[in-house]
Specification:
single chain; alpha+beta; Hypothetical upf0131 protein ytfp; 3 helices; 7 strands
Length: 123
């Protein structure tokens, strides 16, 4: 049995993808999210060189998730549901320093998120 319903993907955002102006530019709509968090990770500042990303977000310095393995480290954010096309649009928005991975959130659900691209999955 086939379904006409498009595939959907969960995306955990801890940064600029939570901003309505970025969502409108990347997805053409404002997303509805639910709070969640990522344990064992911490944020570090990251200077963005891509002029279009800086223009959309209004920020030259973003944050990037980095694995620490410390259970006390925690990144709060929002979980959004995206279509396959929107997930591809997210890949285009995120600069090369970010890599997409899938991880388990504190709620127990898994979601895609963007972390430091040099992370080797050592968790």
């Amino acid at each position: 049995m086939s379904s006409d319903r498009p595939a959907s993907f969960r995306l955990f955002s801890y940064g600029t993808l939570q901003l309505p102006q970025v969502q409108r530019a990347v997805y053409g709509r404002v997303l509805e999210g639910r709070p969640d968090a990522l344990a064992g990770w911490a944020l570090r500042p990251f200077e963005i060189q891509d002029a279009e990303v800086v223009r959309l977000s209004g920020l030259a310095v973003h944050t990037i998730a980095q694995w620490t393995g410390n259970g006390e480290d925690r990144i709060p954010g929002q979980v959004f549901t995206l279509t396959a096309e929107e997930l591809e649009a997210t890949d285009r928005y995120e600069v090369d320093a970010y890599g997409r991975v899938e991880a388990e959130l504190e709620s127990g659900m898994t979601a895609f998120l963007y972390v430091a691209a040099d992370w080797q999955g050592g968790k």
